[in-house]
Design a protein that fits this description.
single chain, 491 residues, alpha+beta, 11 strands, two-stranded antiparallel sheet, 5-stranded mixed beta sheet, globular, Cyt_P450, 53% helix
């Protein structure tokens, strides 16, 4: 017994000496954090299904800037609105780096906008934002596309005849068709088998990277290549999306009109041709394929998941759904489609949609940032090569910014007179130079789809409001709502 105790004590002392030596050898003033073991870091004491919960708990001890180790990878976690804003907005130039996320690198084959840094990121971001805006993102033209897609979505719900259905693919088909119009220049029939197959792959991808297996792959990629088969299955499925996009690129090459580009792919191909003799260009087929895949996946799953969660919350809180419908009936009525101009006259509806996004907290850890060089921040040094986690969960649940952060409460976005009010801590799309490029499109989609659905239908659950579980099924990279069934009853 004494021998065992001595061995444990010796091991603890060895670990403490190792940590002390590493910090002393680095000569850097790292942020504090929980004691990390060699190779496995803080994994033994971390909530594997919801890492952000552990980070929030640890921050009570170590503060709003802390060092944690996921396996051998050092991470600096930023907690709270003030801390995240200071990093991403006030010191934006230092925090623009994107961390090398192994599974995303596999999916995107090392190219594209989301995982890039340096000149590649600057060129692709500038081009993507300009092109999407030219094709109407956030403008009247895009509003008309969403209104047209709303007609198809409403028709599909009408055809259910008030029978219980899983709304997941009803919503993902509609949302995906909007981004498909921008990227590929076409929408797809809701019964198109290939289209449905691709949407299923996207759903499975997000569920995998939000699972413990997906997170383990990012921590121990070489080991997981040999231990897990699940990621191989997902990657084979992703090949189907690569093939789909490649075929679309070939079609565009055959029909390209340099004087009349129809969509994002056309514009990219024109720029690719213009810069074919530039050895430093980032406009080549690999970046085209990966960026199109970025837009297709992100433009489909995040917004459709938010809509699915919105309907779930409205079923859970029928009095809120009824209040929204009364406001919509008073302002718009039943005989015309909503427009973005209606938003200012629908403050309660707008507040609910914002609160859905805050409460869902779809990407609690944010997409990881990266220290491209040593960064001095709040008296600490974040060494080059450190992954940085500006936790959006800690912003959207900041008790100093929200009156009831753990409760679904549209009053967070209403003043004493019932007018809509902004909150600077509303950052579901992140902030700074790495904020979501599709934010204006997502905002427009959420408003127009939600209002058009509530204008025509009342939503309920076969099990009643109490039968709806709004807690996420998975909570790692993304908060994934549980699957459920609803009844869409015509009004």
């Amino acid at each position: 017994m004494e021998l065992s105790s001595s061995l444990v004590l010796a091991l603890v002392l060895a670990v403490l000496m190792l940590v002390w030596w590493k910090r002393k050898a680095s000569g850097l003033n790292l942020p504090p954090g929980p004691l990390a073991l060699p190779l496995i870091g803080n994994l033994p004491i971390m909530d594997k299904r919801a890492p952000f919960k552990s980070f929030m708990q640890w921050s009570k001890t170590y503060g709003s800037v802390m060092t944690v180790y996921l396996g051998p990878q050092r991470m600096v976690v930023l907690v709270g609105y003030d801390t995240v804003k200071e990093a991403l907005v006030d010191q934006a130039e230092h925090f623009t780096g994107r961390a090398p996320v192994p599974f995303l690198i596999k999916v995107l084959r090392g190219y594209g906008l989301v995982i890039s840094n340096g000149d590649r990121w600057r060129q692709l971001k500038r081009f993507t934002l300009t092109t999407l805006r030219d094709f109407g993102m956030g403008r009247k033209r895009m509003e008309q596309w969403i209104q047209e897609e709303s007609r198809h979505l409403l028709k599909s719900f009408e055809e259910t005849k008030s029978t219980p259905v899983d709304p997941a693919f009803f919503l993902s088909r509609a949302v995906s068709n909007v981004i498909c119009s921008l990227v590929f220049g076409q929408r797809f029939d809701y019964e198109d088998k290939n289209f449905l197959h691709l949407l299923q792959i996207i759903s499975r991808l997000l569920r995998f990277i939000s699972s413990p297996w997906g997170q383990l792959y990012n921590i121990f990629p070489r080991l997981m290549e040999h231990l897990s088969w699940s990621h191989h299955t997902i990657l084979r499925k992703i090949d189907d999306i690569h093939t789909f996009i490649l075929n679309k690129v070939k079609e565009h090459e055959q029909n390209l009109d340099f004087h009349d580009p129809k969509d994002f792919i056309d514009c990219f191909l024109i720029r690719l041709t213009q810069e074919k003799n530039n050895p430093d260009t980032e406009f080549h087929k690999n970046n085209l394929m990966a960026t199109a895949l970025n837009l297709f996946i992100a433009g489909t799953e995040t917004t459709s998941t938010t809509l699915r969660y919105a309907l779930m919350l409205l079923i859970k809180h029928p009095h809120i759904q009824e209040q929204m419908q009364r406001e919509i009936d008073r302002v718009i009525g039943q005989n015309r489609f909503p427009t973005m101009d209606d938003r200012k006259s629908l403050p309660f509806t707008d507040a609910v949609i914002h609160e859905v996004q805050r409460y869902l907290d779809i990407v609690p850890l944010n997409v990881p940032h990266y220290a491209m060089k040593d960064i001095t921040f709040r008296g600490y040094v974040i060494p080059k090569g450190t992954v940085i986690i500006p936790m959006l969960h800690s912003v959207l649940r900041d008790e100093g910014q929200w009156e009831t952060p753990w409760t679904f409460n549209p009053e967070h976005f209403l003043d004493a007179n019932g007018n809509f009010k902004k909150n600077p801590a509303f950052l579901p799309f992140s902030a700074g130079k790495r904020s979501c490029v599709g934010e204006s499109l997502a905002r427009m989609e959420l408003f127009l789809f939600v209002v058009s659905l509530l204008q025509k239908f009342s939503f309920s659950s076969p099990k009643g409001p109490d039968g709806v579980d709004t807690s996420p099924e998975l909570s790692s990279f993304a908060n994934m709502p549980r699957l459920y069934q609803l009844i869409a009853s015509p009004r």
